[in-house]
Design goal:
Elements lengths: L18 E5 L5 E8 L3 E2 L7 E7 L4 E7 L2 H4 L2 H21 L11 E5 L6 E5 L4 E2 L8 H19 L3 E3 L7 E3 L4 E3 L5 E3 L15 H5 L6 H17 L36 H8 L1 H9 L7 H16 L19 E3 L6 E3 L5 E4 L5 E3 L8 H9 L2 E3 L10 E3 H4 L5 E6 L6 H13 L9 E4 L2 H16 L18 E8 L5 E8 L2 H4 L14 E6 L1 H4 L6 H7 L9 H9 L11 E5 L11 H4 L14 H14 L6 H5 L3 E5 L23 H9 L20
Parallel strand pairs: 19-22, 19-23, 23-24, 24-25
Antiparallel strand pairs: 1-2, 2-4, 3-4, 4-5, 5-7, 6-7, 8-10, 9-12, 10-11, 13-14, 15-16, 15-17, 17-18, 20-21, 21-22
């Protein structure tokens, strides 16, 4: 029977024994009978519940942190459990087999994409510091050293624990164990209100400024002060009686500065408390194995910079010898101009009927009708009958974007969420607004794609080419940039089986202006945490890369060392790897307020290193082929599906960033420097 711990209630011998299925830290699936005690809230202000447990297969005592189904319906509650799991797994992975691992709770396993998500820990070590009534001066020094050491280990990983309090710092008589990992935030992100006085710093409680490692120094100092004196300190200044206590005097006065800038960093504080431990920690910092791959990325980028760039077309008007007002038909690839004598509208049976504009004298009504009209393209009489929305022909040079990848890579989910983010105003921060090209087409896309996905339904696979055998764009928008210039943008999304064809069906690619290559992590990365996903989907790791990538790249004409069409690579379904570096970092990054000259290069380097280290060169063919190609981490859904639905609904992350990059390469989103250098430029140091 599990003995009581400060974090949960004991397990009774007659407790029910449900089957528990979860993933262990190595990515393996484990199934066992389990017994649990009664649940309680470890913090009344937080949704997580906690209970002691016993795993029957190994007789292993544990603590389960979980969300009820009602609490799990709230994305914010799931985000807290995700933060806790990601932090604990990251620390366990990086500190394994080091003397520092016991400073943090040990993860046994987790199951987060379910109706009642949970996290399993080994039984806590020690009792909460708030329950410790007597501690010798020598123990106080060890306590202060260990707590500061934990802050340093987190700081080295860019993490700041915001939940430090006498309830989350455990002491077993010899060393500390730090819990409260659901409150961890990344340094440099915007602060949000968190914690209670006096243990949360003043600016942290107010949610002002940026998260700083010195926020945690304030919290640690407050915990130590209460432990030494038996009462809490002031909420906004240094205690007046510090000099009366030898352990506190001389080391902590600056830790109570009202603003983070006046406090020492965790490393500086450790130098004061335990200089030998500080030196040992610096010398023990391990590498993460990505350095050779980051260096390879830098070399590849430098080679692209040295390659001569073509003359930039900044006007967004006619090019390639086309006459003014003429655009490239996205289907037959012939030039086409607006012709009011070839217009059609659809009737109630969705059949085309001729539109006679001469009978419509009201200019307002005329313009409204033309927004929903199409023009038949007859530029190539041998090409199957096709029609183009009128606004596509009357708003400058169109921009076409193609989604590339095998079936089941999540292209359609990614594109759907990308469109949804645009229509929610996601491009407004860059001065770009939108309008539909064809209201009826847009309404159908929202009704059939956006609304079902947002409600948690898994979308059907992309349908194949029609009987006429040519690709049609699935959605199109009019984007107006910060200078008032309007560009139609159309999106192609073909099924994977069509993208590996070698006949004329892919001829439309010769006129494509931008490409998004979607990498399926289950196919590309032989990481053990993806084994269960592969088994479930009946797939295997493919070391030869995505077949659709190869077919498309071989189809595009090349006149120099690189293809000049702007491209982006996206590691899709990144929620499957949300606890794997560098995915864990980038999935939580907020979009920038403005695009800089080197935007996405750091993220590109991290994704490149991840793919090169684990997937191999074949999966990087698009990056090697295109002069301007950024790499991104994104998740269209935020979690795994179960029985055709997403249990927590869909929470897209970073789905718009690949398109932002492509729009910057085309000059629609303005960035410092030239559009022709975006994606390869490194700002001078």
């Amino acid at each position: 029977m599990v003995s009581p711990t400060p974090l949960g209630r004991p397990v009774s011998p007659g407790a029910p024994r449900p089957h528990l299925v979860f993933t262990d830290p190595a990515g393996r699936r484990r199934t066992t009978l389990a017994r649990f005690g009664r649940a309680s809230r470890r913090d009344p202000a937080l949704p997580q519940q906690i209970r002691n447990g016993l795993l029957d297969d190994q007789g292993q005592q544990c603590v389960q942190v979980f969300l009820s189904a009602a609490d799990a319906a709230h994305p914010a509650a799931r985000a807290l459990l995700d933060t806790e799991a990601g932090t604990a797994l990251h620390l366990g992975r990086t500190l394994e087999n080091t003397p520092y691992a016991p400073l943090f709770p040990t993860v046994i396993g987790y199951e987060l994409d379910t109706t009642e998500p949970f996290l399993l820990y080994a039984a806590p070590r020690g009792t909460a510091a708030g329950r410790t009534h007597v501690m010798s001066a020598s123990d106080q020094r060890v306590f202060a050293r260990d707590l500061t050491l934990a802050l340093c280990l987190l700081d080295a990983r860019g993490l700041v624990p915001r939940g430090i309090s006498p309830a989350t710092v455990l002491w077993d008589g010899t060393s500390v164990q730090l819990w409260g990992l659901e409150g961890v935030a990344r340094a440099g992100r915007l602060r949000t209100p968190w914690g209670r006085a006096p243990f949360a710093s003043p600016e942290q409680r107010r949610g002002e400024g940026l998260v700083d490692s010195r926020d945690a120094v304030w919290s640690a100092a407050q915990v130590l002060y209460q432990l030494v004196t038996g009462h809490p300190g002031p909420a906004d200044r240094a205690p007046a009686d510090l000099d009366r206590h030898r352990v506190l005097a001389g080391t902590l006065p600056r830790a109570f500065a009202p603003a983070a800038a006046g406090r020492p960093t965790p490393g500086s504080l450790l130098e004061l408390l335990a200089p030998e431990e500080a030196r040992r920690l610096r010398s023990a910092a391990p590498g993460d194995g990505t350095r050779p791959h980051q260096e390879a990325f830098a070399r590849a980028l430098e080679a692209k910079r040295r390659a001569p760039a073509p003359a930039e077309d900044t006007a967004g008007g006619a090019s390639d010898g086309r006459a003014p007002g003429e655009v490239l038909c996205p289907y037959c690839l012939e030039g086409i101009q607006f012709d009011p004598g070839k217009l059609y509208v659809t009737d109630d049976q969705m059949l085309y009927r001729s539109l006679d504009l001469s009978r419509i004298g009201n200019p307002v009504r005329r313009d409204d009708i033309m927004r929903g009209a199409v023009q038949q393209c007859t530029a190539d009489p041998d090409f199957p009958e096709h029609h183009i929305p009128v606004p596509y022909l009357t708003h400058g040079r169109p921009l076409t974007v193609a989604m590339i990848g095998q079936s089941s890579t999540g292209k359609s989910h990614l594109l759907t969420q990308m469109i949804a983010e645009i229509t929610d105003g996601g491009l407004e921060r860059y001065g770009v607004s939108w309008q539909s090209v064809n209201p009826e087409q847009h309404s159908r896309f929202v009704r059939e794609q956006v609304q079902p996905l947002r409600s948690g339904k898994v979308l059907d696979h992309t349908s194949g080419l029609g009987r006429d055998g040519f690709a049609r764009f699935v959605e199109s928008l009019l984007l107006t940039d910060a200078r008032g210039r309007v560009r139609p943008v159309a999106f192609f999304d073909l099924g994977g089986e069509d993208l590996v064809r070698t006949d004329g069906a892919l001829r439309f690619l010769l006129g494509i202006d931008a490409l998004v290559f979607v990498v399926d992590p289950a196919l590309a990365l032989p990481l053990p945490q993806l084994d269960e996903v592969r088994e479930r989907w009946g797939t295997e790791v493919d070391r030869d890369g995505d077949a659709a990538f190869g077919t498309v790249l071989d189809r595009l004409p090349r006149t120099g060392p690189y293809l000049e069409t702007p491209a982006a690579m996206v590691l899709g379904k990144s929620d499957l790897l949300r606890f794997q570096p560098p995915v864990d970092r980038w999935l939580g990054e907020e979009p920038p307020a403005a695009v800089g000259p080197d935007q996405f290069l750091e993220e590109s380097g991290d994704v490149y290193a991840l793919l090169r280290q684990h997937a191999g060169a074949a999966w990087l063919r698009p990056f090697d082929a295109f002069r301007r190609c950024t790499l991104h981490i994104a998740s269209a859904t935020g979690g795994r599906e179960s029985q055709g639905r997403y249990p927590a609904g869909t929470g897209p992350r970073r789905v718009l960033e690949p398109l932002v990059s492509l729009l910057a390469m085309h000059g629609i989103i303005e960035a410092p420097g030239s559009a022709a250098s975006f994606g390869v430029r490194r700002e001078a140091q």
